[in-house]
Amino acid sequence: MTNLQSTNALRLLQAADEFHARLTGEFGAVHGLSVNEFFLLMHLERATSHRLPRVELAKRMHVSGSTVTRMVAPMEKTGLVAREVDAHDARYAFVVITGAGQTKLAEARATFDKQAGYLFQDRWKGSELEHLSALLHRLVAGSVSNLT
């Protein structure tokens, strides 16, 4: 590849894949969560009233509505999320993070933070991390799925 923009996009994808692979094993073994379930819980935690319609969750996660439905079903059974019907329109439902979901998210976030530390330790100075953070923030600014 000779195009620097394409090269950088490829490097971002490679870095994301490596980080995702690290998280996948530990999240599953330690927390019983997938990486996508972790992100779903994060979106709910940051949402107003800790709830979102399935369609909005799908949009924020860049997946289909049916994918969200398949993800939510087992999470409801284990008590991480619940279904809440709109008080004004019973046909409209929200996915809500529960207390158990918030606890699980806090535990998984500690694992996420630990793995993020491994990703950057010994490679980056503090000033470089701050600069990288600013550049990545600019890259995702305005994104509907922005979790920062």
Distinctive features:
mainly alpha; single chain; 66% helix; Arc Repressor Mutant, subunit A; 6 helices; 148 residues; three-stranded antiparallel sheet
Summarize the structure.
This protein has 148 residues and is mainly α. The protein has one domain: Winged helix-like DNA-binding domain superfamily/Winged helix DNA-binding domain (Arc Repressor Mutant, subunit A, Orthogonal Bundle). Helices cover 66% and strands 9% of the residues.
Q: Topology of this structure?
A:
Layout: H1 4-31, H2 35-46, E1 51-53, H3 54-61, H4 65-77, E2 81-85, E3 93-97, H5 99-120, H6 126-140
Antiparallel strand pairs: 1-3, 2-3
Helix pairs in contact: 1-5, 2-5, 3-4
Low confidence ranges = none
- Calculate Rg over CA atoms: 17 Å
Provide the spatial order of strands within the biggest beta sheet. Answer: 1-3-2
What are the secondary-structure elements, in order, as H or E? HHEHHEEHH
Distance between the termini: 31 Å
Strand content: 5-15%
For the residues shown, what is the average pLDDT? 90
Q: Structural class, from helix and strand content?
A: mainly alpha
Helix content: 55-70%
Q: What does the main sheet amount to?
A: 3 strands, antiparallel
Which architecture per CATH?
Orthogonal Bundle
What CATH first level would be assigned? Mainly Alpha
CATH topology: Arc Repressor Mutant, subunit A
Helices, by number, come to 6
Counted up, domains total 1
Overall 3D shape: globular
CATH superfamily: Winged helix-like DNA-binding domain superfamily/Winged helix DNA-binding domain
Total DSSP E strands: 3
